[in-house]
Amino acid sequence: MEQLITFAENNAMLSMAWLAIASMLVFITIKSKLSPVKEINTQELTLLVNREDAQVIDIRSEADFKKGHILGSKHLAVEKINNNQLQGLEKAKDKPIIVVCTAGMTALPVARKLLKAGFSQVSSLKGGFSGWQSANLPVTK
User: Fold this and answer.
1) How does strand 55-58 pair with strand 96-100?
2) What's the pTM value of the predicted model, to 2 decimals?
3) Is 57 helix (H, G, I), strand (E, B) or coil?
């Protein structure tokens, strides 16, 4: 314990950086656990689609969507979601909705916007479409 205190005293900047990183990790973990938008894996997506008739929303570019997408998914541009142009999704307000992007990074903010727009069960796919493909799950064109 004395060595730890001595190290912290001798390396104040390094110790403060470590504390800042540790604090951010704790904050991010707590925020994700309390978030109403959950990240789901490919197996959970498949179960939601098969058992609860979930709607998969693909927010990748239209060119990427045409190259391949999850069976039954609908393409919806992020710009349309930002402008609340959600025609066609109104029927799915009470169904589970899973937002899919390329790598799972941009789906969470979009899912939060859908939640604010009145959709009750919104999730995002962890790893995005890349995670779907790396799990060797079916893709359609």
Assistant:
1) parallel
2) 0.77
3) strand
Pairing of strands 38-40, 121-125: parallel
Of the residues 100, 101, 110, 125, which is catalytic? 101
User: Three-class SS of residue 136?
Assistant: coil
Structure confidence by residue, pLDDT tens digits, 47-65: 999 998 889 999 999 999 9
Segments of the chain assigned E as strands:
38-40, 55-58, 69-70, 74-75, 96-100, 121-125, 139-140
101 is catalytic: yes
Sign of CA dihedral 8, 13, 16, 20: negative
Tokens in use for 24? Answer: 């951010």
- pLDDT score of 51: 93
How do residues 101-123 score in pLDDT, each as one tens digit? 988 888 888 888 888 888 888 99
CB 122 within 8 A of CB 92: no
